[in-house]
Amino acid sequence: MNPDMYKKLEDTIKSRKDIFLLTITDHPDSKLIGSKALLHTDGKLFTNYHLPANLKQRLIENCDKFIRKKHSGSVRFFSNDASVECFAEYFPAPLHLIVAGAGHVCEPMAEMGKMLGFYVTVIDDRPEFANRIRFPEADEVVCESYINYFKNIDITDKTYILLLTRGHKFDVLSLTELLNRNEQPAYIGMIGSRRRISGVFEEIRQEYPNESFDHLYTPVGLDIGAETPAEIAVSVMAEILKVKNQKSGSSLSEKIKKYAKKGFHEGGGTWNKCTS
Amino acid sequence: MEQMHLIRRSLEIMKGGEKAALATIIRTKGSTPRKAGSKMIVYPCGRIEGTIGGGCGEAEVIEKALEVIKTNRHSQQRVDLTKGLFYEDGGICGGIMDVFIEPL
Fold it and tell me: Domains in chain A, start-ordered, CATH in brackets?
């Protein structure tokens, strides 16, 4: 590894793209062992080590399976009769959390987002709210109109969007802007009381009859009785993790209680079989 | 990200002209404490930064890494965690992992 290559690796992750770091871990020519290269998901290879052209080509061919499976792994192959081993290390791009509205709830949201390894963007149209002093941990603090921002932002299945703007109308405007685009984010959460939202939701539903709204969560958060900004952030973050990990969001103890009612005792069944 | 931090550290070490070795898990089989890609920097005095899982397995790798620093030659070490299964310090894992060790 050298500084130039490290910078490329870091920049790619920062631009929220997956990348692989390849290391030659075995080769008959010991000078080549330890050589490194970066492999982008589009199959482009970058290296500033002196690798034979044929070996580069074979690396791309043999590491393609890791790009498809999205995980690290080792592979052994032949390149010009030389048996080569390569370790491909997967650096997944971080999930992107966009918090629109830099008010009270946004602060613990941004902090928790960073704690959980998200790439965090805070966006607000008011400079006195969208600034570095209020959000030192965020990866990006954007001061721009919501509509402009959501018109141009990159949206992938790694994007998690939270609408917490000061006025419900900005949330709705942002939401319609997002619905107008064809890309589907993993999660769109919109804050608001049940009563206020049901009316808006009905209107939007009529405007977008073909939309499934599967990824729209409103009101936001899990039902834990959250009131303070920090509590709300926990509730919303728990919901985001639930969506990301595709889990139920219910208490783990619930399952055990269900089994207990059926007379389940750990290991009980097996022991009876063994002794009889 | 921890991995990135350790790569950055190894660059700093190289820049500063210090000697050390970087150990990376490149293959695992069965149950191992850490997965492929986990890294650990070993300094000549035996101090480490990062972990590849701790216990006897890690100690074996540290020993090998000190050799790598001395000889300035890459090496691979297979750590067999199935052996120590019944020993007190055998850990609770029962897998095998290959570790690539490179001089910095």
Answer: 3-91 (no CATH), 96-245 (3.40.50.720)
* Nearest-CA distance A197 → chain B (Å): 38
Give the model confidence (pLDDT) of A200-218 as tens digits.
778 888 888 888 788 899 8
Q: By CB neighbour count within 10 A (0-12 exposed, 13-18 middle, 19+ buried), where does A147 fall? A: middle
For tokens 């080792």, what's the residue? A74
Q: How far is CA B56 from the centre of its chain?
A: 11
Q: pLDDT tens, A80-100?
A: 888 999 999 999 888 999 999
Average pLDDT over residues A177-186: 88
ipTM over 0.90: no
Entry pTM:
0.69
Comparing CB atoms, the residue among A9, A34, A72 nearest residue B36 is: A72
Which of A16, A20, A23, A31 has the most B C-beta neighbours within 10 Å, making it the best mutation to test the interface with B?
Answer: A23
Instruction: Please judge whether A6 and B7 are an interchain contact, meaning their C-beta atoms are less than 8 angstroms apart.
Output: yes
- On chain B, the residues whose CB falls within 8 A of the CB of A1 are 7, 10-11
Task: Check: CB of residue B93 under 8 Å from CB of residue B84.
Answer: no
